[in-house]
Amino acid sequence: MANYMLLYYKTENDDTKKTMPEIMDDWKQWFGSLGDKLVDGGGPFNDNGQAVENSGVNAIENFPSSGYSIVKAGSMDDAVALAKSCPMLEHNKTTAIRVYEVMPM
């Protein structure tokens, strides 16, 4: 089993008709369904991310990340299947979840 980081992205405001408490309940249920596969529930990011590059520091404006979680899975395919069950995909039509294997060091 390896750890996989799920990076959440959205480009517009939520288009769900659910209230914030309902959305939070969906996330709690999803985290609960992951059981011991959930390594770190992570958290949301503020909108003011900065890109630090050799050429300087700039505000992240193009498809900024909105949060992360870390899960444990047997393969990339298993981690992708977990990501597909994330409630964020239900709450926003302009959402993406990027999945990366975390390499042990």
What does this structure look like?
27% of the residues lie in helices and 39% in strands. The protein has helices at residues 20-34, 76-84, 88-91; strands spanning 2-10, 38-44, 50-53, 56-59, 65-73, 95-102. The protein has a four-stranded antiparallel beta sheet with strand order 2-5-1-6. It has a two-stranded antiparallel sheet with strand order 3-4. 11% of the residues are buried. The mean pLDDT is 90.
| SSE succession | EHEEEEHHE
Determine the mean pLDDT: 90
Helix content: 25-40%
Strands in their spatial order, largest beta sheet: 2-5-1-6
Q: Brief overview, please?
A:
The protein has 105 residues and is of the alpha+beta class.
Supply database-style keywords.
3 helices, 39% strand, globular, 6 strands, alpha+beta, single chain, two-stranded antiparallel sheet, four-stranded antiparallel sheet, 105 residues, 27% helix
Topology (elements, then pairings):
Blueprint: E1 2-10, H1 20-34, E2 38-44, E3 50-53, E4 56-59, E5 65-73, H2 76-84, H3 88-91, E6 95-102
Antiparallel strand pairs: 1-5, 1-6, 2-5, 3-4
